[in-house]
């Protein structure tokens, strides 16, 4: 049976995942499929004092954050955010926070688990402010309680709330925590992760694919809860399932399968998993060898159509379906991390020739592993464009304006499809400045 959610999406039956989100009408690439506010979120330790704990805006020299004078552990951009969080949950957490953060239980947790421990505490404080009996009525929270539980049942950490109510609350907290593993999101700005958040409507709707046709981005607006926008990566036809990636599609297929099975309880049957159902066992030839050089040239030809020189935006999709067997070693789990490490180091240290030698095969590999318009493709193309531009400025003979323009064209297509997200400026502003430097109309 079909259940309408909005003009864009409806829910249909799924044989094992309860429901699936389906396009209620044709959706264009780049369109916002849904926009939903966070029910609750917690910053990573590294973002504490840098971002407002409530709305996530960054501190600046003109807009400094002020810390809560009660606990000195939560920071706000103004009284509006502070008052909202105080009323929602901080009045119940504040007095306990310092004892909690220094407790042996909290100290022994991983960074990921610490963030979730505070998140479950916030949720409990907000919706069971008087202990476990009285539940605050809220549509978003009801949707959260209707979410599927994680198959990997993990014990809920102790809560950061008054000691007296702790033992009675733990069973209820477990009920909340059981939904964390397969529903919570990692928030990012320009692809840098900075928080965990709960977006019940998005969790209720979207199943996973390693070749998704949509991605989540986060919108930060002063004094408002952070929002998730789900964006179409490509045109989606009416009736097609809309999917998100629950993990990085570029991970080796055996790593993806294992993570999806243990954290989410399903065996992925997406196109990518059914084509490359095992990670390549063949180790690629060593860097510097002629064999690897030839393999990278073959990859370049396969994706970009030419053995080198100027790159044109690849128009195809699903390259993994027709990839020649000779390229299989490049799917080995060691290849992608090694080549991206070389690129980052070389471009950072000004070794432009080396960076521009490994950068294009890395870009080709991204086209192979990621779906059309996947943000990582655009971010790497932008890095390549900046590296090629810096090389021109430093008179490195192997770089040309055509190269910069070609990388910029790819970056533009992908990053404009994604649109503004996270903190202001960022990649879209870098694109604009680089185009300006090239003398292009911006
Ligand atoms: C965030 S929920 C997705 C929404 C869910 N379909 C619903 O009706 O509430 C995540 C859960 O959906 C199921 N799921 C998600 N993607 C799936 C897929 N590709 N194949 C099978 N099950 C999937 C798994 O049980 C997973 O733990």
From TrEMBL:
The keyword Zinc applies. InterPro entries: H3K4_H4K5_MeTrfase (IPR050869), SET_dom (IPR001214), SET_dom_sf (IPR046341), Znf_MYND (IPR002893). PROSITE patterns: SET, ZF_MYND_1, ZF_MYND_2. The keyword Zinc applies. Residues 52-94 form the MYND-type domain. Signal peptide: none annotated. One of its GO terms (molecular function) is zinc ion binding. GO terms for cellular component: nucleus. Keywords: Metal-binding, Zinc, Zinc-finger. Residues 1-247 form the SET domain. This is SET domain-containing protein. It comes from Laetiporus sulphureus 93-53.
């Amino acid at each position: 049976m079909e259940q309408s959610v909005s003009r864009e999406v409806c829910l249909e039956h799924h044989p094992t995942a309860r429901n699936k989100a389906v396009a209620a009408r044709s959706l264009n690439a780049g369109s916002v499929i849904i926009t939903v506010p966070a029910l609750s979120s917690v910053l990573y330790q590294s973002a504490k004092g840098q971002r407002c704990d409530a709305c996530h805006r960054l501190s600046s020299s003109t807009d400094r954050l002020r810390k809560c004078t009660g606990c000195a552990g939560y920071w706000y951009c103004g009284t509006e955010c502070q008052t909202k969080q105080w009323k929602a949950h901080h009045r119940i957490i504040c007095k306990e926070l310092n004892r909690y953060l220094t407790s042996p239980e909290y100290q022994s947790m991983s960074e990921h688990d610490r963030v979730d421990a505070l998140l479950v505490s916030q949720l409990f404080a907000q919706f069971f402010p008087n202990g476990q009996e009285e539940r605050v009525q809220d549509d978003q929270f009801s949707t959260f309680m209707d979410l599927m539980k994680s198959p990997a049942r993990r014990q809920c950490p102790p809560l950061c709330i008054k000691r007296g109510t702790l033992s009675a609350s733990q069973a209820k907290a477990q009920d909340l925590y059981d939904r964390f593993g397969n529903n919570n999101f990692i928030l990012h700005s320009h692809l840098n992760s900075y928080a965990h958040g709960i977006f019940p409507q998005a969790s209720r709707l979207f199943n996973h694919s390693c070749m998704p046709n949509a991605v989540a981005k986060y919108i930060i607006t002063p004094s408002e809860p952070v929002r998730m926008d789900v964006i179409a990566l490509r045109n989606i036809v009416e009736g097609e399932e809309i999917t998100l990636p629950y993990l990085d599609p570029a991970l080796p297929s055996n790593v993806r399968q294992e993570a999806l099975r243990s954290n989410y309880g399903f065996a992925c049957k997406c196109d990518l998993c059914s084509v490359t159902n095992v990670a390549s066992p063949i180790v690629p030839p060593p860097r510097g060898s002629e064999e690897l050089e030839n393999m990278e040239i073959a990859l370049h030809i396969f994706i970009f159509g030419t053995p080198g020189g100027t790159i044109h935006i690849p128009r195809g999709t699903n390259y993994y379906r027709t990839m020649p067997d000779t390229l299989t070693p490049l799917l080995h789990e060691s290849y992608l991390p090694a080549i991206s490490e070389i690129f980052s180091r070389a471009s950072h240290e000004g070794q432009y020739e080396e960076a521009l030698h490994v950068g294009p095969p890395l870009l080709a590999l991204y086209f192979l592993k990621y779906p059309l318009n996947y943000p990582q493709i655009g971010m790497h193309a932008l890095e390549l464009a900046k590296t090629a531009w810096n090389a021109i400025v430093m008179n490195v003979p192997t770089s040309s304006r055509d190269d910069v323009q070609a990388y910029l064209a790819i970056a533009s297509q992908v990053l404009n499809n994604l649109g503004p997200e996270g903190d202001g400026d960022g990649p879209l502003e870098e694109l604009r400045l680089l185009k300006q430097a090239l003398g292009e109309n911006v």
